[in-house]
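Researcher: Sequence of Large-conductance mechanosensitive channel follows. Predict its structure.
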Amino acid sequence: MKKFIAEFKEFAMRGNVLDMAVGVIIGGAFGKIVSSLVNDIIMPVITLLTGAADFTKLSLVLKEPVNGSEGIALMYGNFLQNIIDFLIIALVIFVMLKIMMKLSSLRQKEDVEEIKEKGPTTEELLIEIRDLLKENKN
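Model: Prediction complete. Tokens:
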């Protein structure tokens, strides 16, 4: 039992497991923010444009309820809201990735410029030494 607990502790304390846990927590919080953006800001504008009181209640009735039986309806409003949620999340992730890639690119350019400012690389120095040795032999 001690070995099992030790193995579990080692597994749980690995860096990538902790990173994943942090990612899940931040992702959950991010999901709440995006859902609030969609539900509280974007959807009211869409419902104003469509004239629907509650966008999620939009439906197409296929069969009316008869004598207490349930009717059948396609609830396309909720489906459309989920599509809008997805598109906004995808857009936000796309923009964030573009920003991260741009920052990474800028950092790499700075690193290259910093290396150039420091002088020749080890490889360049070795090539120069090799060429000087060739000249001295001839």
